[in-house]
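lol so apparently i was supposed to do this last week
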Amino acid sequence: MSNTLTISSAHEKLRSKKISAVELVQSCIDRIESVDKDINAVVYKNFDAALQQAKKCDEEGVFDHPLTGIPYLTKDVFCEEGVPTTACSNMLRDKDYTPPFHSTTTKRLTDLGAISLGKANTDEFTMGASTETSCYGVTKNPWNLECVAGGSSGGPAAAVAADECLFALGTDTGGSIRQPASFCNCTGLRTTYGRTSRYGVMSMASSLDTIGPLAKNTEDLAIILEAIAGKDPKDGTSGNTPVPKYTDALTGNLKGMTIGLPKEYFIEGIEKDVEEGIRASVKVLEELGATIKEISLPHTQYAASTYYILCPSEVSSNMARYDGIRFGHTTEGINNLNDYYTAVRSEGFGAEVKRRILIGTYALSAGYFDAYYRKAQKVRTLITKDFEDAFASVDAIISPVGPNVSFKIGAHEGDPLAMYLEDVFTIPQVMAGIPALSVPCGFDSNNMPIGLQIMGPQWGEEVVLKVGDAYEKATQWNEKKPNL
Ligand code: GLN
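anyway here it is w/ glutamine bound
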């Protein structure tokens, strides 16, 4: 079935006319129809439009670009012209918000002939680590349907792992690409802040949000990144740094490289199988020619608390636009403006979004700004400096993606702090704005996937992709598939 192909292998088959784009798209649609009732990764199906676009690709018959004719899903926060986009929130679902424009990323992909199949599930406005806060219900992990797919890009990760699409787009504010990728055994890349455009992607925390791909292997991530990265005049925070040909960096050879292993990531509470998986990966990287060096990132322990001040502060500001007048859910029979806002926002937002608006508004209030927000910004600078110091002597840094593998649905119910602690290892990179990759690195004793995190310096996507690709080719953990 062509839905199981990687982008590069599908491209070869399209180019040599061994398969057609219509067949490829149809095989993903068939797969979604057969397995997604159990997984719940797809929240909007745009199949007719996808098939039409595939037909057009076949008629034109030119498959020069590796993404032409390739079907993908977008997390439900990417605006696509004419396609309902809801951030998996009742705030937007109620009105079936349909953007009249494309995000820069979906526009770049569409222009190259890539084919969007629809929208994938996420925690509400991307707040969460399990997709349990989605108004469409939780996405189940293809490796064990009683467990979460991770979050917030649980839909994209589960869909890639279950071969419902060839790749997916996600966003990563505090780990939302890397953690679900690691829970589902696919690869996912958080880019340098500013490497990809945020234009047309619903904001959560604007100084932390990045958008990036999830795919079946690192080579595919390199292909996608080449297509979507680069300056966008519509996003003032996107960088001018030239976009390299990432696929050229994938040599499979790590000779001469030094890779840092930070001692702060091997803390009490990390699952034994996860730690063993990472230690075994160290050996593989050494065999590939890299030198491993123990390093210290001393402010790591403060990253999660810093994030949970800064992120809600920015959330409280970004959520202000959903007031039932400019955007979102509306309600009838209230004639007083303040009561109207209260009713609309109480009805439209779920508990986690409300919690963050409250925390953020508190942290930004005049009396507490210095004690919380300003202090957190200072700690953010210290964390950034940790990485700058480390990258003076190493080319890349590795760690676990998270302290544990996927957990049972409902395991953190009523305990937001436990959910926040899922992000301890994926937040420091966010503070520093550096790129980080999650690649499959084995399974625990219950056959649940484990993820290896590979970090690079700012704008250093080439390095992380090079290490990830070499590791993957040597181990092939990414090729293992769930039984569905
Ligand atoms: N789990 C983190 C949070 O809830 C990360 C979310 C994200 O990266 N979008 O904030």
